[in-house]
Specification:
Blueprint lengths: L1 E4 L2 E4 L8 E2 L3 E6 L3 H29 L6 H26 L5 E5 L4 E7 L5 E7 L3 E2 L10 E3 L2 E3 L9 H8 L9 H9 L1
């Protein structure tokens, strides 16, 4: 690999893949909606902050402070829904969306990167044995890592064997075709 540094060719002798992370391992999954989730959450938070700063001005200019108690309750309720409920709902729905998933072969651990409530990346480390598949298909859950729900798109795994290992499908309790052939021979 040859790169340029101030016009001088520099040769890198690195043997690691560009998808390797020194701490987390090999990148096995990258979510395609990461920027969208971040953008929607950021927009929701920014409009909520804007609402909080504009509320005193709106109340002073509209004269809602002198209206009936019922009108005030309806107004504050409507503003409260858009200011607080929408960002909380968005966070609850997207908190398990996996942005990146790394796998460390040596210790059989996965590292899932998600967004937390303040839009920072959150790291969750778990073993393959901690993965539980829900009995009933849930809308925003592909699997549980310990007790945390995670959402991944199986078609975005470049290597299907990585998904099969994550979900435990490679350790299936069903018989294998080779076992069936051996049973026929005996």
């Amino acid at each position: 690999q040859v790169t340029s540094f101030r016009g001088v060719a520099v040769r890198s002798l690195s043997t690691s893949s560009p998808y390797d992370h020194p701490e987390h391992g090999r990148l096995v999954y990258k979510g395609n909606l990461a920027k969208t989730v971040l953008g929607v959450k950021f927009f929701s938070y920014s409009t909520s902050i804007f609402n909080l700063f504009m509320m005193p001005y709106i109340m002073l200019k509209s004269g809602i402070g002198v209206e009936s108690l019922l009108v005030q309750a309806a107004f504050y309720g409507l503003i409260g829904i858009f200011t607080f409920v929408t960002p909380v709902t968005l966070h609850i729905l997207t908190k398990g969306y996996v942005i990146r998933l790394y796998y460390k072969d040596e210790v059989d651990t996965y590292t899932a990167i998600t967004y937390n409530a303040i839009l920072a990346e959150k790291v969750t480390v778990f073993h393959q044995k901690d993965v539980k598949i829900p009995d009933i298909t849930k809308m925003f859950t592909t699997f549980y890592a310990k007790t945390k729900s995670m959402l991944v798109n199986p078609t975005l795994f470049p290597n299907p064997q990585d998904y099969n290992h994550l979900m435990g499908y490679d350790k299936s309790s069903f018989f294998k075709f080779e076992d069936l052939e051996e049973a026929k021979e005996t």
